[in-house]
């Protein structure tokens, strides 16, 4: 690939012109690394940047000083003119903080935090991790004083989980069952309550009485806090769809992964959120412009010689390179005019700042490259 | 039953297809159970997408007398309805559905969705739905949560049908005669590290038997790549186009370097995890189709044969 067809300059302006950058894509495509490189570049440009990661590979986490779950940003020292802060999301304590913030009294907070149903929600309700990632993002943006916050989204099965996440809990609170359970305190006619009791008995038959009691206690303890949660969720959603928030779609050139990325792009489009750049990690290099078929023919003619093996090998990689471009073509078109930034296979996994810098050279070629 | 598990992006679905086809080639009728939609499994066999209804992905018979490979998708909602109805609780099932209470119940007892799926798989296994059931497990860390759900639910739910279901599922998972896990990874640093972690947590926390590890995407070796292209051309009496020597050299160097890295990872895995390994080759083709699944199935069976000989 020639430097001329690289539009990586746009990626640099995405980092400098936005207050929030969300890296999104399926699992295992290098989102965490991409997020770290973007934040590092911002720091190199003199900005105060913070990267929020969800589940970094251990060695990268160590390199960034993220050994323990602290849930507060820690400063990463290094030779850059700005500041780089990093934090690894701790879903549960983010949720705990949120409960403490919205509780009307310390007692209410305590009752909720010690409830088993709450502990299940904070640990296992699908979408909670996404929700908390966005909540943390909002908090850092509002209170951290950063020029840019880069966030790596959790590997979700459903593209929009992280967008819908803030809405998810409030929808939970709007649930008919919740309203029915709260009925006694709100003076709704008694008949509803009788129906609720019958329903709970039915559920108890399947999952056991303890479980139902925990749930009821939770909903009762939560009473009065819903509005605070709803308002906050609405603010988080506003921030995500604000024009100073940029979404960067990260993918690998494999067919299944590209299909998933296309689905993400489509869903973002439906939510009126443009993809501002597409980063494709782990591209196989294209060693020549020859056609794979022609090289395979040469290999066949020269079968049995070392040169034949070399042609066979070249044909193999040309096939893979053109396969990857074929897979990407539709996606690139879908996200146009967003730039497509290709990062080749690297010799080793990225687990330190040298590795991040190596990726950075592909994402952000030198400004004055002649 | 074989449970195929691994992080996203390691080719779990391709390996599930290859394992199923390998078993079918050995004459075992095979059923692939999917728990996540959109995996591309049907596409690998050039078949239209499927869901809860069972379909045939690859017909058996033919000169080699192989058996059928079938597949279906299981979802927690379908599994719950079916479970309740077959247990004479269809009134409850309608109520649960009408109130949309599944979310609340699933939150009250996390893992309930997983146990419903595993319960259904157990029923298929008990009912001898096929000689071999291949379960394409959920990706990423979710595989551990998924398989741990039985034990976790036994702690949370002490009575009732869910408790019984969890007990039965755990019994199946921890019986090496009935169930094993095949872990899939790539010959790269992070996937290898994650595989080792997953392997130990599955053994410790679920008590499930681990079968061989599948190392997917290994470049097969080619002799002669360490040559200088110009010399090799002279020796073969061939003529190189301008620039071709460079392309041949860079491509050869790339493969040699990556192959060396791949073998380092293979050794590292062997050092850190005392499990037999089966290597599947990287497929250098324009797209994956049934013939590649067959090639991989052949490689899988060859790998099994090697293990048996050792």
| Helix content estimate of chain A | 55-70%
State the low-pLDDT regions of chain B, or none. none
Order of helices and strands of chain B: EHEHEEHHHHEHHEHEHHEH
Mean pLDDT of chain B: 87
Structural class of chain B: alpha/beta
CATH superfamily of chain B: P-loop containing nucleotide triphosphate hydrolases
Radius of gyration of chain B: 23 Å
Largest sheet of chain B: 8 strands, mixed
Strand content of chain B: 5-15%
Number of domains of chain B: 1
Distance between termini of chain A? 15 Å
Q: What gyration radius of chain A follows from the Cα positions, in whole Å?
A: 25 Å
Assigned CATH architecture of chain B? 3-Layer(aba) Sandwich
Using the alpha-carbon principal axes, give the shape of chain A. Answer: elongated
Structural class based on helices, strands and sheet pairing of chain A: alpha/beta
Strand order in the largest sheet of chain B: 3-4-2-5-1-6-7-8
Oligomer description: heterodimer
Report how far apart the termini of chain B are.
24 Å
Q: Uncertain segments of chain A of ≥5 residues (pLDDT<50)? A: 1-9, 185-190
Order of neighbouring strands in the sheet with most strands of chain A: 3-4-2-5-1-6-7-8
Describe the structure.
Chain A is an alpha/beta fold. Chain A has 16 helices and eight strands. Chain A has helices spanning 9-17, 31-44, 58-63, 91-102, 106-113, 116-124, 128-143, 161-173, 176-186, 190-207, 209-222, 226-240, 255-270, 292-301, 306-335, 353-363; strands spanning 20-24, 48-53, 74-76, 83-88, 148-152, 245-251, 275-283, 340-344. Chain A has an eight-stranded mixed beta sheet with strand order 3-4-2-5-1-6-7-8, with helices on both faces. The radius of gyration of chain A is 25 Å and the shape is elongated. Chain B is an alpha/beta fold. Chain B has one domain (2-221, 265-309): 3-Layer(aba) Sandwich (Rossmann fold), CATH 3.40.50.300. Chain B is built from twelve helices and eight strands. In chain B, strands 3-4-2-5-1-6-7-8 form an eight-stranded mixed beta sheet, with helices on both faces. In chain B, helix 6 (112-126) crosses helix 8 and helix 7 runs parallel beside helix 9 (189-206). Chain B is elongated. The model of chain B has no long low-confidence stretch (mean pLDDT 87). At the A-B interface, helix 6, helix 9, helix 10, helix 11 and helix 13 of A face helix 4, helix 5, helix 8, helix 9 and helix 10 of B.
């Amino acid at each position: 690939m020639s430097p001329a067809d690289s539009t990586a300059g746009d990626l640099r302006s995405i980092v400098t012109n936005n207050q929030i950058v969300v890296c999104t894509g399926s699992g295992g495509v290098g989102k965490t690394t991409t997020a770290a490189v973007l934040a590092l570049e911002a720091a190199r440009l003199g900005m105060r940047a913070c990267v929020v990661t969800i589940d970094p590979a251990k060695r990268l986490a160590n390199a960034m000083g993220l050994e323990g779950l602290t849930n507060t940003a820690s400063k990463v020292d290094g030779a850059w003119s700005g500041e780089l802060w990093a934090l690894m999301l701790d879903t549960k304590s983010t949720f705990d903080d949120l409960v403490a913030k919205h509780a009307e009294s310390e007692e209410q907070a305590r009752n909720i935090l010690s409830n088993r149903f709450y502990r299940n929600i904070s640990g296992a309700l699908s979408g909670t991790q996404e929700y908390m990632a966005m909540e943390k993002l909002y908090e850092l943006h509002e209170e951290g004083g950063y020029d840019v916050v880069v966030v790596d989204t959790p590997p979700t099965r459903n593209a929009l989980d992280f967008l819908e996440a803030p809405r998810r809990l409030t929808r939970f609170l709007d649930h008919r069952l919740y309203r029915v359970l709260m009925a006694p305190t709100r003076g709704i006619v008694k008949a509803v309550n009788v129906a609720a009791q019958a329903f709970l008995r039915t559920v108890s038959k399947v999952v056991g009485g303890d479980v139902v009691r925990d749930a009821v206690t939770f909903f009762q303890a939560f009473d009065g806090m819903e509005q605070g949660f709803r308002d906050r969720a609405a603010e988080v959603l506003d921030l995500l769809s604000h024009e100073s928030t940029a979404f960067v779609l990260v993918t690998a050139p494999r067919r299944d992964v590209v299909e998933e990325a296309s689905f993400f792009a489509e869903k973002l489009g439906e939510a009126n959120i443009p993809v501002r750049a597409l980063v494709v990690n782990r591209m196989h290099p294209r060693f020549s412009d020859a056609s794979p078929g022609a090289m395979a023919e040469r290999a066949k003619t020269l079968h049995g010689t070392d040169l034949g093996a070399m042609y066979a090998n070249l044909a193999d990689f040309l096939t893979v390179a053109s396969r990857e471009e074929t897979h990407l073509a539709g996606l690139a078109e879908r996200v146009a005019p967003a730039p497509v930034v290709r990062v080749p296979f690297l010799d080793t996994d990225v687990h330190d700042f040298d590795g991040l810098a190596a990726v950075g050279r592909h994402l952000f070629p030198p400004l004055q490259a002649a | 039953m074989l449970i195929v598990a691994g992080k996203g992006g390691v080719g779990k679905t391709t390996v599930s297809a290859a394992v199923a086809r390998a078993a079918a080639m050995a004459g075992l009728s095979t059923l692939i159970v999917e728990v996540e939609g959109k995996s591309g499994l049907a596409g690998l066999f050039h078949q239209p997408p499927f869901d809860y209804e069972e379909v045939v992905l690859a017909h058996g018979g033919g000169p080699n007398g192989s058996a059928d490979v079938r597949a279906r998708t299981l979802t927690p909602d379908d599994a719950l309805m079916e479970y309740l109805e077959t247990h004479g609780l269809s009134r409850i099932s309608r109520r649960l559905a009408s109130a949309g209470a599944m979310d609340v119940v699933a939150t009250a007892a996390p893992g309930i969705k997983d146990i419903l799926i595993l319960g259904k798989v157990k029923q298929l296994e008990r009912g001898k739905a096929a000689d071999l059931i291949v379960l394409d497990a959920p990706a990423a860390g979710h595989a551990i949560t998924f398989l741990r759900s039985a034990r976790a639910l036994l702690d949370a739910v002490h009575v009732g049908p869910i408790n019984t279901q969890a007990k039965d599922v755990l019994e199946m998972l921890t019986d090496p005669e009935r169930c094993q896990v095949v872990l899939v990874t790539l010959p790269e640093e992070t996937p290898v590290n994650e595989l080792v972690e997953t392997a130990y947590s599955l053994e410790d926390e679920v008590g499930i038997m681990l079968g061989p590890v599948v190392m997917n995407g290994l470049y097969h070796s080619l002799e002669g790549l360490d040559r200088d292209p110009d010399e090799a051309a002279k020796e073969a009496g061939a003529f190189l186009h301008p620039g071709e020597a460079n392309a041949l050299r860079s491509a050869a160097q790339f493969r040699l370097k990556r192959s060396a890295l791949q073998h380092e990872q293979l050794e590292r895995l062997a050092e850190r995890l005392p499990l037999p390994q089966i290597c599947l080759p990287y497929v250098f083709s324009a797209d994956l189709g049934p013939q590649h699944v067959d090639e991989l199935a052949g490689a899988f069976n060859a790998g099994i044969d090697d293990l048996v000989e050792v």
